[in-house]
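thread: overnight batch results

M.L. [08:02]
morning all. the overnight job finished for the chain we discussed friday. pasting input first so we're all looking at the same thing
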Amino acid sequence: MLNAAIVGLGWWGRTIAATLRDSAKLRVVKAVDPDPAAASWAREHGLDHAAALDAALGDDAVHAVILCTPHSLHAAQIARAARAKKHVFCEKPLSLKRADAEISVQLCNENGVTLGVGHERRFEPPMLELTRMAKAGELGTLLQIEASFCQDKFLDLPQGNWRMSQSEAPAGPMTATGIHLLDLAVSLFGPAESVLCRTRQLGSGLSNGDTLAALVSFKSGAALLLNAILATPFAGRFTLYGNKGWAEVRDLSHPENPKGWVLTTCARGGEVVSRNYPPAPAVKANLEAFADAAAGKARYPMTQEEMIATVAALEAIVTSSRNGAIAAVA
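M.L. [08:03]
and the structure it wrote out:
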């Protein structure tokens, strides 16, 4: 059993704590957050509470930290945790800059600790099947992805919340929802080459933007058409096109409370076939894969090269969003 401290008890930190309540592989034993309300919540849920990260890093009973903190803090917190010999699971994005992602990976490797990232969309059963089909060549040469992840969960955020900050959450929806689609595209196409992105504030008070459209070109020649919105009810779609067929995953609900998915496929010369998938705890599956990797039982199913490549493409998206021009990926 891997004992972990959750760092950051906002919406998602509390969601992860609830998700892991019945895990047989990873147990939350401490909560770290300076907010007095977080201390009260931790006590109500039987968790030891600390106001500062050092209390978790100096606790021998804590084997790992789960970072649910503002994005700009990730690199420094990963560095401190790695040097304290604690395994690190970091919520997405791993960082906002490629250079920071590279340093984080390097420090975890040098200190012999596992690094995991909160890209749980990879662990959804229909997405696993779509990936299997792509890797097995059933879709032929991979050509393009059309992907959309929209929600309106942030419309009631108070002014000043870090999720509305241009520095913490640049390019509006990108770090909240679009990053998942970008990561999936990297897992299928490899490293990106260039980006053209537009972000606008059209239907909300979200000052960093609520509507994003991006074209991401990959070194393989394939492309991602990415749509992410924070001012409309939930909608999720991921369609992969190949020269032998296509496959599409449609989400029936937000991943926080999954209600299942529909996987639709069509091979060249064949019929369109749809299959329903029941709900599955993808967030938990990712965290338990991290726990297995930390215990040396299995390799974490996201490569470090992919972690870095996703952040590199994210950095280019932010650049393009700000200046309106095509941005090269570092």
